[in-house]
Structures are given as C-alpha cells and as structure tokens.
Amino acid sequence: MNISILAFGIAKDILGKNTLQIEVSEQPTAAELKQHLIAKYPEFEKLASLALAINTEYAEDTQLIYDGDEVVIIPPVSGG
Questions:
Q1: Number of folded domains in the chain?
Q2: 64 Cβ partners below 8 Å, 6+ apart?
Q3: How far apart are CA 23 and CA 21, in angstroms?
Q4: What is the pLDDT, as a whole number, of residue 65?
C-alpha cells in the first residue's frame, strides 16, 4: 500500500523534504501512521501537537488511510 505524504513548516524540516512516499503492508489508521512517522523521524515526538489531514480533511486518529490517499502533516502553528 502506497501513501503520499506532504509536509510543511517544521514537518518539512524534520523530513528534509516536502514530499514523502511510504509503503506499508497493512491499512493504517491516522494514529498508526503518526506512530510510524515518529519511529522513523523521532523529532516528530517533540512537537506539542501533530495533526494529519487525509485528502484535504482533518483526520481523527481512528480514520483509516487507503491506498493512494494523500496525507498532509499539519505541524503546530502559533500566531497572535
């Protein structure tokens, strides 16, 4: 199963690029994908929050990710 990941801001800095293709053997949930990313890129664990959007919609941790889905890593944001 192939998943396309887009990253912006600090997430892009952690990955070292703004796009990533990962291959997983089973259909993951959003939470499982986060854990996969943290295992491969431990810097993600240091972020105060890490959200995912799947196909332009914010994803709950229990949402399944399907083959060919586009996932966007949404790093914490600040502003005033």
A1: 1
A2: 27, 28, 29
A3: 7
A4: 96
Encoded tokens for 15: 């990955």
Residue 30 belongs to a domain: yes
pTM (global) more than 0.70: yes
- Identify the CATH number of the domain in which residue 19 sits: 3.10.20.30
Reading the block at residue 79, the tokens are 């502003």
80 in any annotated domain? no
Q: Has residue 15 been placed in a domain?
A: yes
Angstrom distance (rounded) from CA 80 to CA 62: 31
Asked if 72 contacts 6 with a C-beta cutoff of 8 angstroms, the reply is yes
- Of the chain, the end-to-end C-alpha distance in Å amounts to 40
